[in-house]
Amino acid sequence: VRKPRMIEAANGAVPASVLLGLGVGTEDDIANRKSHHEMEHDAGEEHDHDEFASFVVELGPIVDPAGFVAKLKDIVAAHDVLRLKGFADVPGKPMRMLIQAVGTRIDPYFDRAWAAGEARRTRLVVIGLDHLDEAAVRAAIVAAAA
Q1: Is 55 exposed, middle or buried (0-12, 13-18, 19+ CB in 10 A)?
Q2: In the prediction, which pLDDT does 38 show?
Q3: How many structural domains is the chain composed of?
Q4: Sheet holding 52-59, edge to edge
Q5: Long-range pairs for 102-110: beta carbons < 8 A, 24 or more residues apart
Q6: Is residue 140 part of a domain?
Q7: Containing domain of residue 72, as a range?
Q8: Are the C-beta atoms of residues 72 and 141 closer than 8 Å to each other?
Q9: Model-level pTM?
Q10: Which of 1, 25, 59, 74 has the smallest CB count inside 10 Å?
Q11: What is the CATH number of the domain that holds 78?
């Protein structure tokens, strides 16, 4: 039995060969590695999958990034947002603030400098189940940015 190996990663930066398992022989046994759906089909099982909704919210500059992130946590919790991702324009900062949220865990950090000629803007993608109230979530995010 092989013991699992640990690797160090920061902000998801992991070599593609590790993520894809290249060079470990998995590709030699591909015929026996069926997907979840292939296994269900082979077993005669059928079931529905959740439907998802997503939309983009575009905003102006975010003057109080810490306050904005705190308000986003409340919005995510109140509206059952599954995922929120994007970036924000923070005045006075030469870099854009990346925002990654899974549930109420939000990880904001400055990821890269704004490119020459790139429009500074705030743009967030919101993802939830299909019953997500887009109007309410959009209004709450706009209010949080004010």
Answers
A1: middle
A2: 66
A3: 1
A4: 52-59, 122-129, 81-88, 95-102, 105-113
A5: 103/76, 104/73, 104/76, 104/77, 106/69, 106/72, 106/73, 106/76, 108/65, 108/69, 109/11
A6: yes
A7: 52-145
A8: yes
A9: 0.67
A10: 1
A11: 3.30.1220.10
